[in-house]
Amino acid sequence: MFQSVLIANRGEVALRIQRACHGLGLKTIVVYSEADREAAYVRRADQALCIGPAAASESYLNQAAIIMAAKVTGAEAIHPGYGFLSENALLAERVAEAGVVFIGPSAACIRVMGDKVAAKRAMRAAGVPCVPGPDSSLPDAPDQIHNLAREIGYPIIVKAAGGGGGRGMRVVEQESALLGALSVTREEARRSFGNAEVYIEKFLGHPRHVEIQVLADSYGNALWLGSRDCSLQRRHQKVLEEAPAPGIPDALLAEVGSRCVEACRQIGYLGLGTFEFLVEDGAFYFIEMNTRLQVEHPVTEMTTGIDVVQQQIRVARGERLTFAQADIRCRGHAFECRINAEDTERFVPSPGMITRWDLPGGYGVRVDSHAGAGYRVSPYYDSMIAKLIVHGDTREDALGRLRIALDEMQVEGIATNLPLHRRLVRDEAVIAGCVDIHHLEKQLREGTLV
Amino acid sequence: MDLKQIKAFIDAMASSDLTELQASKDGWALRLVRGTARTPSRAPASDSSRPVQDRPGGAPAIADKPGTEVRAPLFGIVHLTPSPDALPFVVTGQAVKTGETLCVIEAMKVFSNICAERDGVVKAVEATTGSEVEAGQLLMRIA
Question: With respect to CATH, is domain A208-446 assigned 3.30.470.20?
Fold first, then answer.
């Protein structure tokens, strides 16, 4: 069993992993870029190693440097966090080859889930409901393609097999536009993902984004830890998440959850993972699986009472899960606001020095952040600087607490999206719950947010 | 550099939001570019997930006003070339037309084109490519 973990990430998630490791009595080794030299979690690490300049391509994405860092520090395991190399099958493979434990599923699992067509096939085999459409490569003959599309029924969506996270997609309203859309998407996919394969499926017009958190150990035990709703998005980026997803019958959720667990067993999945679904008119449709820890994991922690990062590390250490599905309870309701360094009047990034940092607090309020007054938000990385998480007995209770917390939080020196969040939690549709994935952009476009 | 290593870089890039990645090792150089039209044209590529904005920030900054200092509208990383091994967008002494890209500022995965606001000649380039610039910092002089 490993006693030390190299954290191959930065910012909020590096700190989150460090806390989980410390909770388990494990040593932490932090690798950092020149831009993150001053970060508090770097100082708090048992060992810290600079692996390159600020640009992520020369540091946090540099596999050779990360593996070398593990070797020279004697790290026994690597936690990839989210983003960067967290879903990179090759890194998982190279880490294992170096005799180090990769905290995540096998390279083979990452590879299958990284190919959206292969993933869909694996999900269908496990009985997970998918969006109508074939789970194989498209035929070459235009007639056959047209027949397939007609069977599905327009509008359809063309997607890149190597895409994900909302990239490499094109909606086709009618037959005449299909072949053109296919060739353009193929070319984009080839350039963007190095894989020209595309597939087609039914386009859903007003879906919600609902996801299921899973956790599996290496003894064939897999559990689902409830649902999250992440429908409030802008440019495919989640803005505000909640758990559980409101308005979904328990029996339906349990059915989908058990299918996800079955899929985990079938593919030999290990660790944390998320099955993402579109939900429309009461039906679930699988879109993709994220084979890593997710940004929005705290809402699941708040409602289940389980430290999922600690659990992820425990199962990677070869420990057996100590609880069963019947022990999993969803208690109350939780929300998470992603606080970004961006000006939401014009939606432009706002890096720079934080001069004031007043955090909210009190019962049921949690802030996960690596930032603070005097912290300089780097222009080199993602704009998320904090996650504000609240828990309440009911959705209404949690939302009320969130309003107060958002009003208490004050950040100066840089612009943040706090004003947008304050408006969102007062939006009638958000208060009612169950908005679709287009709601936020529509409100912004039409200027109808309160 | 073998195929496996190249695949590693492709994986690294595909799993990130980078538009461009460059690596060199043992006499090999590899450059991966996402999207279109980055190398051949002078404007950096923009893909659907990452808009190139012509004028970020409120600061109407940028080129022009008599005296014509081009200043950074936001804190970020300045790029004087469309890609690391490409020619610069502009060089000293070059005539530029309104709307022509002078440089790009990168901040938090968003690339913003800094464009000339009227015709002129580049008198001096005051920033180094790859360096950080503060909001309001002088980038170029145009007359």
Answer: yes
